[in-house]
Amino acid sequence: MKASDLFIKCLEEEGVKYIFGVPGEENLDLLESMRESSIKLIVTRHEQHAAFMAATYGRLTGKTGVCLSTLGPGATNLLTGLAYAQLCGIPLLAITGQKGVKENWQGNFQIVDIVRAFKPVTKWNTSITNAHTIPKFIRHACKTAEAERPGAVHIELPEDVAAEEVTGEPARRVKERRPVPNHTAIDTAVKLLEAAKNPMIIYSAGANRNKIHAELRNFVEQTGIYAVATQMGKGVLSDEHPQSMFSMGIHKKDLVHNVLDTADLIITIGYNIVEYPPSVWSKHKKILHIDFTPAEPDEYYNPDAEVTGDISTGLRLIREQLKTTYENNHLQEERTTLHKKLHSKPPECWPPGPKQVVYKVRKALGNEDIVCLDNGIYKVWFARLYPTYAENTLLLDNALATMGAGLASAMAAKMVYPDRKVVAVVGDGGFMMNSQDLETAVRMQLDIVVVILKDDEYGFIKWKQEQMGFAEFGMQFGNPDFVKYAESYGATGLRVEKDQCLGEVITTALDKKGPVVIECPIDYTDNKELTGDLSKG
Length: 537
Fold this sequence. Notes:
This protein is an alpha/beta fold. It folds into 3 domains: 160 residues, Thiamin diphosphate (ThDP)-binding fold, Pyr/PP domains (Rossmann fold); 154 residues, 3-Layer(aba) Sandwich (Rossmann fold); 192 residues, Thiamin diphosphate (ThDP)-binding fold, Pyr/PP domains (Rossmann fold), CATH 3.40.50. Helix content is 37%, strand content 16%. It is built from 22 helices and 18 strands. Strands 2-1-3-4-6-5 form a 6-stranded parallel beta sheet, with helices on both faces. The termini are far apart. 53% of the residues are buried.
């Protein structure tokens, strides 16, 4: 068979269902091999968007998401998506084409050393120069991408190698068991807990990614310990649970941080310092680190004990051995106060503010429906105020924090969960970075709703500019008529007018078929709250 045939057979063995990408002439043998395979090619309008879609697919399934590009500019367009997956801990495989390694009649045309360029944003990458190594390298790539901590990998397939005749079979995919934590580590953790008077839990993206929600719920209920989510951990413990203290904010004097200040031991679950700086909450507290991998050393994060291995097993072993329970009546009162301050219905105003947007989106969706956020100041408000009831139902990025990923995330989420409602909330700046892939959503007939918060400026950066005492400069831009823009692609366009309720417009949009774009003006006056002391409301 051709080497490209073997390549595709290896991906099929890995369970790959989709490849997202923009093909080039160096990929043509691979495309021909894919044409009659079980793998579906999702052609996007930009490579970055393809990488974002593949990453979200990997985030939601735990299996390696796959994206494809040609050489040179196509490959460099994938770079941001790889960094997104790498920093967020998402399994992703990027496949790029390349000129022939044995004979290249085009000289240096479009030649960039992509393997070297991708090295800082991948766990592993390589160029295949011998077709017989394809099974080994694909098995290694997917195994590496999915191993804790997950991340991005890359394989370059030159066009002459792809066309070679080769014999071989895919390397068999074997389901692996994660190692269980060491019993001595469990004993140390139990002793640390027994010495604490007021422990609290911070659960993070690592817990959300690996579906340990059931064991976390058992742990908090048996021990009486209360738990706080990071932004990317929201949903692992339902915010309806009486021991959920909701989510950490952006501000060092936020409401939830006041509660953390009272703890004498912090138990981190699935935590990585890339997601939320420990300097905000650690304050020289004792720390128990529970994760699949050891803690990354940091000036503000040096755990007193580490339980490394399968998180669910670690929590269960500690729970079974721990005899202490904690009476936290003061936290019950704090939770009631927090719930009222964070989740009460905000007053109506025009244009709507971020608090209204969060409230209206939450009211329009069910407990397991999905919200996908791009990056902007509204992300802070959703992380703070949006009650989340199930894991991976609020998808945001607080690691690379890249703009342009919200639409892609919603599209991939709808592919993984076609029976759930999916809403993307994006800023006008972030949306326009990859808005051309609205055509892809239309072509795929994806029933998604995209709420564009329109303020005609880079609002998050403007807010920071104001905090630094600088004059307003360089933040404004123009926008298209988003209703007409959506309609030009064949999507439905709606606009929130002064006499309309945003919630009703969202509900109307959710009942329609295909992509629906809602243009909604936004008043960020509420942002002034983020500049002061949030510890009192």
